[in-house]
Amino acid sequence: MLTVYMPVTAATTTFSDVANNSIYKNAIYTLADFGIILGDAGSDTFRPQANISREEFSVIMTRELGLGALNVTVTDYPFPDVTPSTAADWSIKATKIAYDLGIIKGFDDGTFRPKENVTFEQAVKMIVCALGYGEMGSEGAFWYSKYLMTATSLGFTEGSGGA
Question: Which pTM was predicted?
């Protein structure tokens, strides 16, 4: 079983658009204090109700694994739509790392579609694979069935409203 130790500290990050009574406040500030999420560049906002793109979630996953600061030179792009001319500079390295680790695979047509919103199922798949549980579970009717079953059995989806 994988155990992640994250010491609890007083939040030092604040966002003007995260309400004090938000049930997600502590989670948002903890992730921000650990540098896993940053909020909007150049502002003090987080946009807690906004969707997250596939490239943003890939960055979050690599930061969560402590790989966000790796000095990786990307010359072999795994997806034709994740190159310096098609994707955000800040996400290309994370996408390559996530691909190399098997956290992301892309679509059957060979694309990653970095600007599309990440779906619940895609996020669950990335989390399960990032934590090393990608080979667990049995195949089901949908591509995401085994990841969702694995996440549910491990308690990852409890309280998510998605499963």
Answer: 0.82
